[in-house]
Structures are given as C-alpha cells and as structure tokens.
Amino acid sequence: MKAPVCPACGCQSVVAEIESSQFRCPDCDHHFLEGTPDGWRSLLLSMLPLPVVETQHGLVGGNPGEVVVRVGDETVEVAAYRAELRGGEPVVTAKKWKVFDLSAGPSEVMAAIQKARARRLRTYRWCVGCRKVLPPERMRDSVTCHHCADQ
Predict the structure, then answer these.
(1) pLDDT tens-place string over residues 60-86
(2) What is the pTM of this model?
(3) What are the contacts of 107-114 at 24+ separation with CB within 8 A?
(4) How far is 33 from 27, CA to CA, in rounded Å?
C-alpha cells in the first residue's frame, strides 16, 4: 500500500491516528479525512493506481482504467473499472459498487480498492496477433484485439 500523501505540503510522512480515523502530517500538522468528501478525495488520490483521472463517473485509477471511485456527500463507492466502446471512446459501465459511509476506516476502503483492481486485472486477455495483454474493451474476441482484427 502506498503511503498517504499530505494534501497540504506533499510529503509522504503522513501518520494515521487510529482512534479518530484521521491522518495527520507530522511536518505541517495538517489533518485530513474528517469524514468529509474533500478529506476522502485527498486520501483516495494517494490510494489509487497512477495516473488518476477525474471523469464524470468518478476518479479512475490506472491507464487503462483499473478501478473507479466515487465520492458523494455521504458515501465513498468503489468498483472495478469496466468500459464499453461507444463511438470509439470508452464509457464507464462499472457494476458491483462497494459502498462505504464517509466515517469508514481508510484500511477498509483500501482493501476494496485492491480487490476491485484484482477483479479488473483478471479480465485482461492476451492477443495472439500483437502479443499484448489488453483489457476486454480492446479485444474483438477472446484471442484478438480490435487493432489486429482490423489489419
């Protein structure tokens, strides 16, 4: 697990305060994750695989996308990234969202992110043409990607 990054000073020496489910930066004494959407968003940016892109569907971690997280006024939702190509562009169609209250512990949410990533990566397939491991939305069938099928 990556160390949380302080949203105020950027250091990686953030320490957990277990009893309050908050994190504190010992360098600048910034506290975050006080059960607020902004606090969660800061913490999630340090938990998700890079790059992290903000989309209309939430924060998408990884390229290609591996996990998507939505932060609402009262909940944090985690799902394995899933997309369908529509007009040549991927559209997020994630299912099986794991929902947490904003008061949830960061370790619970991190475990859900790790499980969602593992579920997503299990869907990747190897193309016999270009010999690359690709996500399902880039495959024409179970053994050939769209690019190789169009050649």
Answers:
(1) 999 999 999 999 999 999 999 998 878
(2) 0.77
(3) 109/44, 109/47, 109/76, 109/78, 110/1, 110/47, 112/78, 113/47, 113/48, 113/61, 113/67, 113/69, 113/78, 114/1
(4) 17
